[in-house]
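Researcher: Next entry: Short chain dehydrogenase (Aureococcus anophagefferens).
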Amino acid sequence: MLPPDPCIEDWTGPGLPPRYQLPGAPMYPDGAPSVFVTGGSSGIGYALCRSLALDHGFRVFMGCRDGDAGSRAAMRVEDEGAYCENIEIDVTDDDACETAAVMVQSLLGFEPLTCLVNCAAVGHATCSDGAKIVDVNLRGAKRVCDAFLPIMDERFGRVVNVGAGGGAGYVETCEDVARRLLTSPDVRWDDVEAYARGALAAEVHDDQGYGLSKACLAAFTLCLAREHPKMLSVTAHPGVCGGTKMNPGAADRTAEDGAKSVAFCLLAERLKLGNGFLYGPDGLRSPLFAARDALCGNQPPVWVVLTKLENSLARSNRSRFG
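Model: Predicted structure:
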């Protein structure tokens, strides 16, 4: 029997919850921060790249499997006056990930990369092969981290793995042994990999393995938090967003809405984000072992706060890459 959920933060005081008090001062004091985003040519990935480049002064490296589509997407952002560089990458290929990291390092002039976002994913709308879903969503993030962590800034670096509510929902249906494994701060990558292989073989998964892949991705974030304690590693759940490859149908939220909740994990004050934690579409910490409706109640949506944020970082760096 698991203990009562200790993660959900209820705010009953006046004004905004403390987590939404984003600072106006730059979070990355060494000048303009840089970010590499996989899956950046469409959907939430593209919306995130565009927002970080235009609204927050990031130097954006847009990782895309389709080089031509990536070039067109990056050009659209640059045409609006921001820095955005297309980097071709296939997250299922170790060599391609290594090559992408070398390219980014060269373009940075061998300065460290500040942030990494693992957004590339496939789901049941585009793929019915559970093994491929796990390989892209879970092992793809691992390959990218293996390639990029050596070139990242250990002082201010952040890794955001884009998860899903279905990950926590999957853990909720697991036996206690599996739940303890997937939510333990001491979990090891070998344990996560072995569990994913066993669950696929035993068909202990739902929706062609999507929930399994995102549950294991959140567990991988716990591995990163333990192994790289000076950096900040979190999982961001952007919610269901319509009009994307993952969810081609209509939905109340857009890719831009989902991107803003991911951007929150890159922009919020470090001390207000816990290493290894999962954050929902509303920017509040969510449990790893139970699904929750993060868009109900009276909490202000994270994108409203981000819209109101006066970002001195964007002001100071817009001209640098304009």
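Model: Note for the record: The CA atoms of residues 2 and 176 lie 8 Å apart.
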